[in-house]
Design brief:
Layout: E1 7-13, E2 18-25, H1 27-33, H2 40-57, E3 65-72, E4 76-84, E5 88-95, H3 104-108, E6 111-118, E7 126-131, H4 137-148, E8 153-159, E9 164-171, H5 183-191, H6 196-201, H7 204-212, E10 217-219, E11 223-224, E12 226-227, H8 233-243, H9 245-255, E13 258-261, E14 268-271, H10 273-279
Parallel strand pairs: 5-12
Antiparallel strand pairs: 1-2, 1-10, 1-11, 2-9, 3-4, 3-6, 4-5, 6-7, 8-9, 13-14
Length: 293
Amino acid sequence: MTPESDSLQRFVFEHLAVRGELVHLDATWQAILARHDYPQPVRDLLGQMMAAAALLSATLKFDGAMTLQVQGGGPITLMVVEVTAERTLRGMAHWEGELTEGPLESLVGAGRLLITIDPGGGRERYQGIVELTGASLSEALDAYLAQSEQLDTRLWLAADGQAAGGLLIQRLPDEAGAEDKDAWQRISLLSETVRPDELLGLHAREIIHRLFHEEDVRVFETEPVCFRCSCSRERVANMLRTLGRDEVNDILDEQGSIEVTCEFCNQHYSFDTVDAEQLFASDISPEIPKTRH
């Protein structure tokens, strides 16, 4: 059975206070790779971040966007993945020099993990920041969630040049007080047997059956996931307006035009002197003719 393309699969364990999610990214991941030529270690880590962002967003209730970010002092200096409430994803990475396969610390160095949640509707943003720890991104996220969340949460992530995928399990509040006391440990041990090739190559229901066939699992309808970049010419224009007319004119005098390329999707935007005049045209108050009484 081949994996279901670009989908998020939720499931719950009946009579246990545990839920889970599986994500598989195909065309979504290929859309990122078509726009950037990443070395393999960068590519695989960014793919894992894409899968992680999709999984984590599904545990939240929000109308805006969540940003997952890694900042480091190693060969990989920056990775950013953004996911919206509509399950649209975009991501990018910065790196320097030659890279070889290795644990997270060798790729990123001393770094930080940041998760920013913009709930939308003009509400206040939330940001959590922790030191980057662990040999893998999943271990780093497990450590972050252990510090910031009241609910036990674990992730398993995988990515290659074709696909990205991941598994998340989360312990829920046992409001009835009747939970199987060994449930969380048992589900965690079963989940640990999942292999990267299974996350990348098997259908979500097949993975669930292989891992949890002795459990009573309820599987929900899949949700679509896709690549989409939120950049636009209008957004770039608004950014230029914030610079002010004088600074924009200085750049035009020096360079002849203003060239902006989106780091997420590589879309290019160009503004010349005529475009600049239009940007600030609304700043000019029309002359009001004098009236005679």
